[in-house]
Amino acid sequence: MQEQQNIEWKESWKDEYLKWICGFANAQGGSIYIGKNDKGEVIGVSNSKKLLEDIPNKIKNTLGIIADINLLVAKNKEYIEIVVNPSSYPVNYKGEYHYRSGSTKQQLQGSALTEFLLSKTGIKWDAVTVDNFNVDDLDTESFDIFRKEALKSGRMTKTDLDISRKELLDKLGLMTNGKLKRAAIMLFHKNPECLVTGCFVKIGKFGKGADLKYQDELRGSLLSIADKVIDLIYLKYLKATISYDKDIRIETYPFPREGVREAIYNAIIHSNFADSIPIQIRIEDDAMYISNSCILPKGWSVDTLTSKHKSRPYNPDIANVFFRAGYVEIWGRGVEKICEACKIHKNPLPEYNLLGNDITVKFITNETSKASNIEKDNSFKNNYLQNDALDDALNDTLNDVLDDTLEDKIKRIIIERPQITQENIAKLLKVSRATIQRELKLMSNKGVIKRVGGKRFGEWKVISNTLENNYLQNDALNDALNGTLNDVLDDALEDKIKRIIIERPQITQENIAKLLKVSKRTIQRELKRMSNKGVIKRVGGKRFGEWKV
């Protein structure tokens, strides 16, 4: 008989061999022979009677299992056989979990230990109950988010939701014997990191290589993170390419919103949070990477994920709540939906990469966005000035007037938007930035304009406001600057307000005005316009309410 996966030979007994017995019990079982050398030859033991008494007691007292101990004889030499059956529950040796793999013994740690314990007990990681937490510790806003989304999705009725927190958690399967499950804390607690380190989402905008431009960490309950993360990415981290179909403005983002949404929600419900690593979203000009720690079902690979398969979420209780809220379907169609979204948006199919315990999905920009990135010098025109009237007015009329009327054009723009940058004036008038800098200096020296405040938060003031008749009487240019220019810069103001609201939903109109260095009246007018467009809405009263994008 040869030494193999379920057979081990030892010349004499040592208490450390309890680890080998532990490993056999946690695997497929096996036998240890005491009194055989490495070649499998019987060399015998001198204290067989004592070993027959000691070994069973040590196995029982240390490992909590029963093993068969047999005395065998070969060539007039006695040796011991220890037969270990596979255990249906996890067996540990002084807190250590050992496992027999091939012809070696391994101590399980980290995610491997987590997976082993879950497979043995049948209890999923997010279903483990926790002590020292009760329903009153959970976050009101997170319950409000869930009730609103679950009702909107149609997967729960108003009657289902109009119950106490405790009853709702019980209905969602987030309590066992009156105790909250780990999933309940992660979904509804304002600070789930007090229980699970790394339970948040990290977003970073990168330039070339390792150049990190700016970043955010979305912390809080998983429901509050899910409620904010997509808008934060699309309002702060991505720029849309603007085009027009007649009078209809069309915004095209570099990545499909529905596909990104599905990928992030999938990362949340499948993430192995036991690794204490947050979900990470890296955004570059031509790609977006969404990564999370994971443990794939046994036998699964990236090919399994990208083909048709059953839904097997790593965190079933979290997945169930996301399903009720309408965030996911739980049909194993996540990757399929992401690919469909990319096709509709004319993006290349996403790329999946599995490295160790980390899985990453890579989105690649569509062709429109790639072209926009290549022509960065013309990005302002590409994004905002796709308007025939303005193009014609600027191309035809402005190029035909004398150089001294450039001063009048700049004054008109400054009157409309005192905080406009030199770069944007240059792009509007289709001249170089150096030309604008030279003209502004000349106008300042002549006393026509002056700069009030610093470079970042200051503004221009027109001192002399006599505009040439040929400029004022040009209807095409007037219409272009009054209409399209206002729309362009109003859109920029709208984006700024949306970003502020996402970061601080309860911010006052006065504080928005202070942050953006404009009048409160301007903010009131803009908020009203955005509300009428359906871009934002006010939830609650003036004093305790908040804005929602």
In short:
This protein is an alpha+beta fold. The protein contains 22 helices and 20 strands. A 6-stranded mixed sheet has the order 10-9-13-14-16-15, with helices on one face.
CATH C-level label of the largest domain:
Alpha Beta
Please identify, by name, the CATH architecture of the largest domain: 2-Layer Sandwich
Helix percentage range: 40-55%
Oligomer: single chain
Number of helices: 22
Task: State the separation between the terminal residues, measured CA to CA.
Answer: 72 Å
Largest sheet: 6 strands, mixed
The count of strands amounts to 20
Shape estimate? elongated
Secondary-structure content class? alpha+beta
- The total tally of domains equals 4
Radius of gyration from the CA trace? 34 Å
What descriptive keywords fit this protein?
single chain, 549 residues, alpha+beta, Methyltransferase, Cobalt-precorrin-4 Transmethylase, Domain 2, 4 domains, 4-stranded mixed β-sheet, 22 helices
Q: Can you describe this structure?
A:
The protein contains 22 helices and 20 strands. The chain has 4 domains: 7-108, 2-Layer Sandwich (Methyltransferase, Cobalt-precorrin-4 Transmethylase, Domain 2); 127-194, no CATH class; 201-371, Heat Shock Protein 90; 376-484, Arc Repressor Mutant, subunit A, CATH 1.10.10. Residues 375-404, 467-477 and 479-485 have low confidence and may be disordered. The chain has 549 residues and is an alpha+beta fold. Helix 17 crosses helix 18.
Helices and strands in order:
Layout: E1 7-10, H1 18-26, E2 30-34, H2 48-63, E3 68-74, E4 77-84, E5 98-101, E6 104-107, H3 110-121, H4 140-153, H5 158-161, H6 165-171, E7 175-176, E8 179-180, H7 182-188, E9 201-206, E10 212-218, H8 222-237, E11 241-245, E12 248-252, H9 257-270, E13 279-283, E14 287-293, H10 302-305, H11 316-324, H12 334-344, E15 351-355, E16 358-364, H13 367-374, H14 379-384, H15 388-400, H16 406-416, H17 422-429, H18 433-446, E17 449-452, E18 459-462, H19 469-472, H20 475-503, H21 509-516, H22 520-533, E19 537-539, E20 546-548
Helix pairs in contact: 4-8, 8-9, 8-20, 9-11, 9-12, 15-20, 17-18, 21-22
